[in-house]
Write a structure and sequence with these properties.
Blueprint: H1 4-16, H2 21-24, H3 27-34, H4 36-46, H5 48-63, H6 80-100
Helix pairs in contact: 1-5, 1-6, 3-4, 4-5, 5-6
Length: 104
């Protein structure tokens, strides 16, 4: 049985092969300033590579049973506790993605 750190790292390694540090480095700051939902919506319109990172966050949250199908935007119908839990896990996961991503 793997612990949560191993699961985060394994999943982060997959997406990190497709992106650069530039694609992910600013995302945690956006989440902290604007929230997970606003960041997801913003990146969906802004940048394809950074949005790929957020789709990876989606998949990770689904695998961890924090998010039930769909995407992060489904959290608008969840409790604030579920949104907070998803935000915390997203930030923890993104720290691995950021570490594993290739330098520009």
């Amino acid at each position: 049985m793997k612990n949560i750190e191993q699961e985060r790292a394994k999943h982060a390694l997959e997406i990190s092969k497709k992106i650069s540090k530039t694609d992910v480095s600013f995302i945690p700051g956006l989440i902290l300033q604007n929230g997970l939902l606003a960041t997801y919506a913003f990146l969906k319109e802004k940048d394809k590579k950074s949005y790929e990172v957020m789709e990876s966050v989606d998949r990770h949250l689904i695998e961890q049973k924090i998010l039930e199908g769909g995407n992060i935007l489904n959290l608008v119908n969840e409790s604030s506790f579920n949104l907070q839990r998803a935000t915390e896990e997203s930030l923890a996961y993104l720290s691995y993605v950021k570490r594993f991503a290739e330098k520009d």
